[in-house]
């Protein structure tokens, strides 16, 4: 009995020590990414070490035209624990070996992989979501989900977790997913602090998805 207790305490100590403010989150940017997919979660992750990566260092233009300074490219970047892939207009990136190979390689190494919106489509393109449950932007549902029939797409979901993969529906759903991730891996107090900083009211129910009807339009 004592052995079991000590083992459990050691495990809890390890978990508590691993997921803390030193946790590194690497966000992948690409031309025409959806800005809110990044801004919302980035704010929720304000306690952690977050950095941006792209195929090339320099300015990356979002879908709405704002330009983001990216200091790390796919060859030179800090190590990270969590891979984050936002959505956007992904058609060009689905034919871009550089970003697909990077996502595949880093997703295999990451402890957790987060995608927002059509970011899950990029992850699906690597084959890593085959056999897993996932969701994506409902307005892009008819266009992309038939291309990846081996993924168990969940239409009615704000976000879905299957193992280390956590995928969200479109745009603002990414912030709700980010809050879920923080609560699950960092605890309720850390989440409450992040929500207070963001003055954000979290939709904590992954099954509450009032936009799922858009998938049928």
Automatic annotation (TrEMBL):
<feature type="domain" description="DJ-1/PfpI">
    <location>
        <begin position="24"/>
        <end position="183"/>
    </location>
</feature>
<dbReference type="Pfam" id="PF01965">
    <property type="entry name" value="DJ-1_PfpI"/>
</dbReference>
<keyword id="KW-0315">Glutamine amidotransferase</keyword>
<protein>
    <submittedName>
        <fullName>Class I glutamine amidotransferase-like protein</fullName>
    </submittedName>
</protein>
<feature type="signal peptide">
    <location>
        <begin position="1"/>
        <end position="17"/>
    </location>
</feature>
<dbReference type="GO" id="GO:0016740">
    <property type="term" value="F:transferase activity"/>
</dbReference>
<keyword id="KW-0808">Transferase</keyword>
<dbReference type="InterPro" id="IPR029062">
    <property type="entry name" value="Class_I_gatase-like"/>
</dbReference>
<dbReference type="InterPro" id="IPR002818">
    <property type="entry name" value="DJ-1/PfpI"/>
</dbReference>
<keyword id="KW-0732">Signal</keyword>
<dbReference type="InterPro" id="IPR052158">
    <property type="entry name" value="INH-QAR"/>
</dbReference>
